[in-house]
Amino acid sequence: MLLFAVFVYWLDRYEKEPKILLGAAFTWGALVAAGLSFVLNTSVGVGVYLLTGSEMAAEITSSTLAAPIIEEIFKGLAVLLVFLVFRNEFDSILDGLIYAAVTALGFAATENAFYIYNYGYQQDGWSGIFALVIIRVLIVGWQHPFYTSFTGIGLAAARLSKSSTVKILAPLAGLTAAAFTHSVHNLIASVVPGLGGFVFGSLLDWLGWALMFAFVLYRVYAEKRLLVQHLQEEIALGVLTAPQYQTACSPWSRTAAHMNALFNGRYTATRRFYRLCGELAHKKHQLAKLGDEQGNQRIIDRLRTEMQSLSPTAAA
């Protein structure tokens, strides 16, 4: 799951999120969300069993009703904390997706360890571990990031809107979509027995993931358009040069510039400069769309000053 999180981080091509915040989100998912969800899910299952005397009723109620809501709320809280406390780092729809996915991968790391040990190793030894790793990591490894991404999208939509209605309804809609898709997955696993149910559920999962991945790629492209639009005038202002502008707007050129800088002692300045390019484009977009909330103009001025100081040493 940590390797999956590194891949998610890599997808954020133009305006990287702070590693410390992503690490905190992953840790929240692995410890807080997973721990509290386990306690509450178990309590619900035990409560239903005591009321009905039916193990099946307890299992279906816990897995299809309680678990999706409980788990998505606790995972979503990490994204909400970033949204509220580190608002200046929450700049786009893609940011919401990144924080949500990384939190969910932390959750999945703990859940996978629990399932692989208890239902793999303890029941069938090493062959059980192998089988559960194939299922939990390779076949359904992206399920939790997929669900929780809807919560991230909802919070990001609220972040980028002036409408009070959107600010209230978008996060609720995102959380509802997260819990609903989670519930559908668990319901299929609970009520459709055998290989047929497994295949059908897996195909449905992969279809959802493919659509979400296509949406992520679209958001990456949308971020590129932001840089193309908002960095053009920075050339005339002396913040960056025309070659640096071209490099900033291309992930492949950025990679080449980073590699070039690595061999001439300018890597740190180059890396910092192009990250600031992404931040500047987003803050200018927010200033145009939302006004000077959260001191956007002050942040833009600070970013321009730092970029001007780095520009002479940043490779293009």
TrEMBL record:
Q: Which InterPro entries match?
A: PrsW
Under the GO molecular function aspect, what terms does this record hold?
Answer: peptidase activity
Q: Where are the transmembrane segments?
A: 20-40, 60-85, 97-117, 129-147, 195-218
List keywords of the entry alphabetically.
Answer: Membrane, Transmembrane, Transmembrane helix
Domain of life, source organism: Bacteria
Give the protein's recorded name: PrsW family intramembrane metalloprotease
Q: What's the source species for this entry?
A: Levilinea saccharolytica
